[in-house]
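TASK: fixed-backbone design
INPUT:
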């Protein structure tokens, strides 16, 4: 499954690299580019643990590929690389389960692209508190989601046609 470079870039930008274990905003032990034990990659960050940037990038790519495989079956209409990248960044941050239950995905699957983009902004809390860092990340993901790919005119036509057919004939 193709992982667009912009997905890797946006995640790296917002996660940042940390060579030592730290507690994230929700108090979860984290290392590298936001890697936690919950990612199920065979790494369990513990206090005092360190990681190289190269190792961290390998875990990042592994996690994105894993999450992509988990969320892709839930996406029921064509999307641009930028939309896919924004959704991958969101899923990386909130987890694939939460992503699959999100209104962002539901709106997208219903052909409501603008509502899907706006729903990305709702994921701005950790521990019940709005965090400025998450607000910035969601604004960036929303902007990427709404940015046309270089090939969008052709893809946009096919996506619109596919959406129309899905509404007319169902899944």
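OUTPUT:
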């Amino acid at each position: 499954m193709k992982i667009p470079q912009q997905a890797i870039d946006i995640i790296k930008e917002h996660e940042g690299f940390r060579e030592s274990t730290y507690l994230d905003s929700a108090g979860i032990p984290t290392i590298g580019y936001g890697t936690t034990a919950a990612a199920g990659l065979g790494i369990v960050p513990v206090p005092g643990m360190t990681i190289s940037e190269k190792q961290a990038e390998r875990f990042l790519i592994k996690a994105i590929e894993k999450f992509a495989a988990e969320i892709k079956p839930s996406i029921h209409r064509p999307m641009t690389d930028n939309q896919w990248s924004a959704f991958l960044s969101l899923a990386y941050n909130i987890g694939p389960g939460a992503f699959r239950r999100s209104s962002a995905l539901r709106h997208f699957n219903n052909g409501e692209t603008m509502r899907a983009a706006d729903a990305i902004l709702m994921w701005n809390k950790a521990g019940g508190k709005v965090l400025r860092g998450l607000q910035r990340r969601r604004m960036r993901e929303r902007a990427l989601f709404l940015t046309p790919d270089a090939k969008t005119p052709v893809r946009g036509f096919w996506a619109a046609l596919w959406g129309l057919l899905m509404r007319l004939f169902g899944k």
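COMMENT: The helical segments are 5-15, 53-71, 81-94, 96-100, 103-109, 113-120, 132-146, 152-169.
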